[in-house]
Amino acid sequence: MVGKFILLACCLLGTLRLTAGALVADYAPESPAAPDSGQPPPVTSPRLRALNHFVLFTQEKDPLKQRQLLIKVLVDDPGSTLALQQLAQTPPELAPELAPELCRVAREHPEELPLALLALNMSALLPEPETARQDLAERVLSRIPEPEKLSEPQIELYRRLVRFRLGELLKAGEYDAGAELAERQLGSATPEPLPLQNAVSFYREAARRAPDQRRWLGLRPSRKTEFQRRYEELLGQLTATDSKLHQDQAILERLLLYASLREFGRLRSLLDRHHSRSAIQLAGADLLLAHGEAAAALDAARRAVAIDRDNPRAAARLIRSLLALNRFPEADRELRKLPNSELREELEVQKLWAERRYDEVAKELDRQEAAYQKITDPQQRLAQLVRLQMQRLSAAEKLRDPELLKRAAEFFQQNGLLERSPEIANAVGYISAELNLELERAEQLIDRALAAEPENGAYLDSKGWVLHRRGDHQRAAEYLRRALEKPEIENNRGVTLDHLGDVLRALHDPEGARRCYEEALTREGEIDFDPAPVRKKLEELK
After folding, report:
1. Residues of 395-410 as b/e, b for ≥16 C-beta within 10 angstroms?
2. Helices H, strands E: what count in the chain?
3. Which member of 15, 24, 178, 366 lies 3.0 to 4.6 Å from 169 by CB, making a disulfide possible if both were Cys?
4. Closest to 134 measured CA to CA, from 144, 113, 114, 119
């Protein structure tokens, strides 16, 4: 995706400073040098080879060759902080070239946890090597029989490695192995918050995915039931630690967890506990808005405004919350309080979206495009135009306007973004399918996105929808059901359920379609979901 770098746990290593002092510190001899024998230093010295590759890296201009040199550094010095920090900033499009070799180096040095996490996260961007990822994660974890004896920084990395491994086991459907690992990392009767968070997240997903059949001739409950019970038990333990959270970062992580679990009551309670912290209230408002909890978001936004009345970010959250609740006169009053700025301009466009004045949105986008073309900095100009064209795609969908779709697609094609960005390829493909245009080309674009991220729920939804448009309803249903299992569509689940309902109607399964539509209507607060057409379809099924 454009502008996204690999987000790795290795970021705990700190910020890179390429200075002579840093190089000396990283590659200084580990013991005093022997007396000078008059001979040149041996070129076979691993640390000397590593230093040589690092120097070559600083002189190389090609991004791929730079990172290949950094991997050579790690071959001889697998704990090199400098190399790890630079590789952690690798753009996703370079991952296919680098991940296999990086995984090989990590397998040879399973004791180096930062290296293992780097390799695992980079290889997670590839479509194929899930088995290799699992083998690497298992190899590293097997070398740590007593994690409680690790140093504090190592324990943090170990727990993040466990989180990665649990996610891989969920993907593979190995729920019992995941449960065993989750319980093993909990350790004591009063486990630390991060292991608890890992276990809670695992059991929530396992309860959602596991089979629901009772076992042992019906004498034992299903694994789904057992996982749900354990989830509720551990969630209670985790919530009991909320009172011990004092640092903003720890509180924000807990808010994110509750949002991902859709435990909005607990999220609101945590916001109430920290009602005087503006940053916490702003983050809470964002999370609640993203999950369709507009009323609760409005409460958090009002608190943030009360704490800091002159903060435009707080005012923006307040206005967005009012728009999500269709309270347009109040939003207008708050908008008028803002000075003329890019933020106010952006919020006014959002108001047009909320009021469904899509023709005016399209005109405003034309006006903005003319203004953005005058930006002198090419990177800033491109970033603004990309954002605008993505909005134009949305307008094309709402207005059913092929011309808007064509303009956006041509812009992305001319700038090479359909090839480089899975997100943009998927967006153009999906809107094309939605408008029932160039379906073969639309499927090719969606397949391109899936090749980069085969388990992305949004892309699976797009694939299902384009297959439906092409008349392959059976395969469409399979893709849409897979999409519903993925976290990417958790905030937009209503749209996917609506899609699956349409596909099931085409497959002559009115009861299945009805269930999908009814569940979709429970997601009315979601930003992209329009409940009116779904209600009409339900009426048609009566």
Report:
1. bbbbbebeebbebbbe
2. 29, 0
3. 178
4. 119
Whole-angstrom distance, CA of residue 119 vs CA of residue 306: 45
379-412 pLDDT per residue, tens: 889 999 999 999 999 999 999 999 999 999 999 9
What are 375's two structure tokens? 């930006």
Instruction: Output the CA–CA distances (angstroms, integers) from residue 296 to 159, 310, 464, 525, in the order listed.
Output: 32, 22, 33, 12
The rounded distance, in Å, linking the Cα atoms of 394 and 392 is 5
Q: Which two tokens stand for residue 418?
A: 């359909």
In which band, very low, low, confident or very high, does the pLDDT at 120 lie, cut at 50, 70 and 90?
A: confident
Taking alpha carbons only, the member of 141, 98, 145, 138 closest to residue 118 is 98
Residue 138: which of 115, 118, 164 has the closest Cα? 164
The one-letter code for the residue type at 324 is A
pTM: 0.72
Burial of 387 (0-12, 13-18, 19+ CB in 10 A): middle
Angle at CA 56, nearest 5°, toward 53 and 58?
Answer: 115
